[in-house]
Amino acid sequence: MDLEYGMLDGRRPYYRIGDTDGEPLVILPGLSDSLQRDEPNRGTAMALAGLYRSFLDRDVWVVGRRRHIPAGSTTRDMAAAYATVIDEYDLWPADVIGVSLGGLVAQYLAAEYADYVDSVVLVSCGARLGGYGEELAKRWRTMAGKGEWSEIIADTERKSAPGYQRQVLPSMIRVAGRFVDLRPEVPADVVLSLTAALEHDARDVLGDIDAPTLVVAGDNDRLFPEPRVRELKDGIDDSTLALFKGAGHGLATSKPKRVNEISRRFFDGFRGDGLYP
Q: Looking at the 3D structure of the chain, how many domains does it have?
């Protein structure tokens, strides 16, 4: 397995895992990308290799958003920046997985840069946030503005972690915050990312997505409730929905093996009811 990591052009974190001679797979992470405190490192690379082991025969790029996001950036702007990366590193046409905020960005990437996207999997997202999701994003943005990093990280885990971890992790994070500086590398990026998510509404471009699309979500996702998920699926002509019963927003990490198996079958050309969990 090849393993590579660092900063693209000195400003965008990336991890490259798998087989560099394989077909390209580009993964767009969620809000956690902007909450990172450390430079890309081998430990995180190994963790990602474990998380995405279903794809290690491919050339997998986990690419974060640039550090020091320009003020006023939207998810559409972020998609344009990803298109530049895909073009510069000759990754097209790529299969794309977008998770949460990364899924919002991937909607514009697929709609407006069709030549770069072969097929796309949108995980734990909708064409726009749900009402409660908007309340949460605004609350997290306020916390970020005040520098309440242990609180925002604890709250995001409470809303997305699976099972008992939802109860245990927030308390552990708060305790850790008394002794460890949880301030992210670029605090303003958290505020700007949450603002971009709050302003995201891709309903007017979903019909422009020609790439086969798989929407993967939990029916208990409080940020993107089922009606928002179905709105996303119904807006894309060539789309399939895989809805996990009882799962919440943290689907990509609570059920990674199943999500990746379904995504792999989709990328390999399988379509139909067998995709459903």
A: 2
Closest Cα partner for 2 from 55, 64, 39?
55
Q: Is residue 37 part of a domain?
A: yes
- For residue 85, give its domain range: 2-130+202-275
pLDDT score, position 209: 98
Answer yes or no: do 122 and 138 share one domain. no
Same domain, 98 and 115: yes
Task: Answer whether 0.90 is exceeded by the pTM.
Answer: yes
What pLDDT shows up at residue 161?
59
Residue 28 inside a domain? The answer is yes
User: Can you tell me the distance from the alpha carbon of 38 to that of 44, in angstroms, rounded to the nearest whole number?
Assistant: 10
CATH code, domain with 72: 3.40.50.1820
pLDDT < 50 regions, the chain: 164, 170
> What is residue 103's predicted lDDT score, i.e. its pLDDT?
98
Residues 66 and 105 in one domain: yes
The residues carrying an active-site annotation are 100, 221, 249
Per-residue model confidence (pLDDT) at position 208 = 98
Burial class (CB in 10 A: 0-12, 13-18, 19+), 89: middle
33, two tokens: 């990308």
Dihedral sign for Cα 73, 79, 80, 83, please: positive
pLDDT digits (tens, 9 = 90+) for 73-103: 999 999 999 999 999 999 999 999 999 999 9
